TrEMBL record:
Domain Glycosyltransferase RgtA/B/C/D-like: 64-214
Name of the protein in its database record: Glycosyltransferase RgtA/B/C/D-like domain-containing protein
Alphabetized UniProt keyword annotations: Membrane, Transmembrane, Transmembrane helix
Keyword Membrane: yes
């Protein structure tokens, strides 16, 4: 390569990661699942539409600050904009990752690459296309680590502790994962500041303020603070009856049995972030970050839920930072090292899209649910977030066309999110919605507009009591 071409290449490669980052954020908007979404994602959209800014109870599935924030956002901008919120959050998340990376020794170019690798990682990009809590939560915990490493002269130790407390409170009011990811940070703070670490508490209380009405309501319902705390972390309670995920925590014994969902989580390690996991850093700051990310990985991998990959966002961002730094060092002696480092950021989408192409053309078989949701290809939906998926929208439009007003629609939590978010958007007017687990006077509907079942999964008790007629989608119920 002549000197002029080498100079042009050198000036291009630092710019390439930034241009790719902008393109990826734009692609997230295009790949968004839209204002009608499945399961929890659809329920988040529905809850925001209700205008109830504060949680009434601090259950495990409550996210008080997210509820407060999205309810205000919905009132200001509507449901379509809210469905794109996580795509919008990719920009501040990328900025936070850049600042955190430079605070632990990365160059500006490495920091931009780390942000690019992070937003292209499977779990981060998947969540960016949905209405979900995890990107907002990751911003708070990553900011807390950046504050710890920040060398800003204006930040005295006292102010830094207060701000870390504030971010911890905001994170805790957004998701319980905060206490897992920030554990190494708090161990370091206690070892350095000892009793002065208590200065975090005022900031934490302010950040946790959106959860206080729920705590007050639970205290009035005869729950102790210990009971409230246990219920918030695990869902377990002797008083409240709801989803109990205590038995799903730290289930290392079930990881092989649930290898499909563990495999989905491991997709987020495709790329430089794998080097961040495998190579233990020498720098003290980077070791602290590695400990937080590894703890996050252990928790997410052993949490026995289908979308366990969603809990890995902070860890992926941290491993991306460390991985880019490590990979840069390994490629430093190779002439096209900078180009290879930039291209390595595309490992995840290239590999996943290639496998999906083989699957789509019948050249590869991949495991899927026994009873898939109508209109949804689970391989596309869960594994390939880079391609738009509007299956929930098609599902609702089919019901809108085939089910008359006044009908009863019965569903398990997965399709119920789509039905609820559709009603928040003004669709399915006059249709009554009921969960499979809820008592519903089904017979009252059979002689009028009818009762319909979205799918058999999780609804076998209802299906056994009625004659089923195939419908689009799902089934129509008739008296046997």
């Amino acid at each position: 390569m002549n000197p002029e071409k080498a100079q042009r290449a050198a000036s291009f490669f630092p710019l390439a990661p930034l241009l790719l980052l902008c393109a990826v954020i734009a692609a997230s908007f295009i790949a968004s699942s839209g204002p009608i979404q499945w399961r929890d994602n659809g329920m988040f959209l529905f809850d925001a539409s209700q205008g109830q800014y504060f949680s009434q109870s601090l259950a495990a599935v409550e996210h008080p600050f997210y509820k407060f924030f999205t309810s205000i956002f919905f009132q200001l901008f509507g449901q379509q904009a809210l469905s794109l919120l996580n795509s919008m959050l990719l920009l501040p998340l990328a900025w936070i990752i850049h600042r955190l990376a430079t605070s632990v020794g990365a160059t500006s170019r490495q920091a931009v690459l780390a942000a690019l690798v992070s937003v292209l990682a499977h779990c981060v990009f998947w969540i960016s296309t949905k209405a979900d809590v995890y990107l907002l939560h990751a911003m708070f915990v990553l900011l807390a680590y950046w504050l710890q490493f920040s060398t800003e002269q204006r930040l005295g130790e006292l102010k830094k502790l207060l701000l870390i407390g504030l971010l911890s409170g905001l994170g805790a009011a957004t998701h319980q994962l905060t206490f897992v990811v920030l554990l190494p940070l708090y161990i370091q703070l206690l070892s350095h500041h000892r009793l002065r670490t208590l200065m975090i508490l005022p900031g934490f209380i302010v950040g946790f303020a959106t959860a206080l009405p729920a705590i007050a309501h639970d205290l009035q319902g005869s729950m102790s603070l210990l009971e409230i705390g246990r219920r918030y972390f695990t869902g377990a309670s002797a008083i409240a009856t709801e989803i109990n995920r205590e038995g799903s925590l730290l289930r290392f014994d079930l990881m092989w049995y649930e290898k499909k969902t563990v495999g989905l989580l491991l997709l987020s390690l495709l790329g430089p972030q794998l080097f961040g996991l495998l190579i233990f850093p020498r720098d003290k700051r980077q070791r602290l970050l590695w400990s937080a990310a590894f703890l996050n990985l252990l928790f997410a991998a052993s949490y026995n839920v289908t979308d366990r990959f969603a809990f890995f966002v902070p860890g992926v961002a941290i491993f991306s930072i460390l991985g880019v730094i490590r990979l840069q060092a390994l490629l430093a002696r190779i002439r096209p090292g900078n180009a290879l480092l930039t291209l390595s950021a595309l490992t995840s989408p290239i590999a996943i899209l290639f496998v999906h192409a083989l699957y789509s053309n019948g050249l590869l078989r991949l495991p899927a649910h026994i009873e898939a949701l109508p209109f949804r290809d689970d391989i596309h939906y869960f594994m390939t977030p880079y391609l738009p998926d509007r299956s929930a929208e098609r599902f609702v439009h089919a019901y809108q066309a085939s089910v008359p007003e006044g009908a009863l629609l019965i569903a398990d939590p997965e399709p119920m999110g789509a039905l609820r978010s559709a009603q928040a958007l003004g669709m399915l007017r006059g249709r009554k919605l009921a969960m499979c687990s809820e008592p519903a006077r089904i017979h009252d509907y059979l002689d009028s507009a009818g009762a319909y079942l979205a799918r058999l999964s999780y609804c076998t008790l209802i299906a056994e009591q009625y004659r089923l007629e195939s419908w689009t989608p799902g089934y129509a119920l008739h008296i046997k």
